[in-house]
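Per your request, structure below.
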């Protein structure tokens, strides 16, 4: 995951809403991510799921600002450009979302993609996320100020509800 961002072109980072100058040094980022990974899932800063296709990692999703039993913020990336618009990322994200709802007993998942990045906006809508609004913000520690679309997805009803 770290190498995906560190190795990305300036153009790719810009399209994602990421400011290269805000990225941590690779070694520092890996150290922090590994230390966070050692903590119990419910107390991590971020929880990652790798997307593997034929044994190769092709993308990832993650949750941040996790409040078990309540909500969390979703992040998603399809690393391989040739797989974009193929439906693979949509299938991976659907599975990721199902896992996150169960793992953290979430009531809702929120996602705030860069408004100018059409791909995640399209996928979220396809998976049933509801557009709440649009606002200008700095959506994360590595982002520049930008317009984001805020989406939410409520937990699916279970047989006991």
């Amino acid at each position: 995951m770290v190498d995906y961002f560190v190795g990305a072109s300036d153009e790719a980072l810009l399209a994602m809403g990421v400011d290269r100058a805000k990225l941590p040094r690779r070694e520092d980022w890996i150290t922090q991510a590994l230390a966070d990974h050692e903590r119990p899932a419910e107390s991590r800063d971020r929880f990652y799921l790798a997307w593997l296709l034929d044994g190769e990692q092709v993308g990832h999703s993650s949750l941040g600002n996790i409040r078990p039993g309540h909500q969390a913020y979703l992040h998603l990336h399809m690393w391989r450009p040739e797989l974009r618009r193929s439906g693979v990322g949509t299938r991976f994200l659907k599975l990721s979302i199902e896992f996150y709802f169960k793992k953290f007993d979430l009531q809702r998942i929120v996602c705030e993609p860069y408004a100018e990045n059409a791909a995640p906006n399209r996928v979220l809508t396809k998976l049933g996320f509801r557009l709440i609004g649009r606002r200008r913000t700095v959506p994360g520690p590595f982002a520049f100020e930008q317009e984001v679309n805020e989406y939410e997805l409520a937990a699916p009803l279970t047989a006991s509800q």
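The longest strand covers residues 56-67.

Regards,
D.
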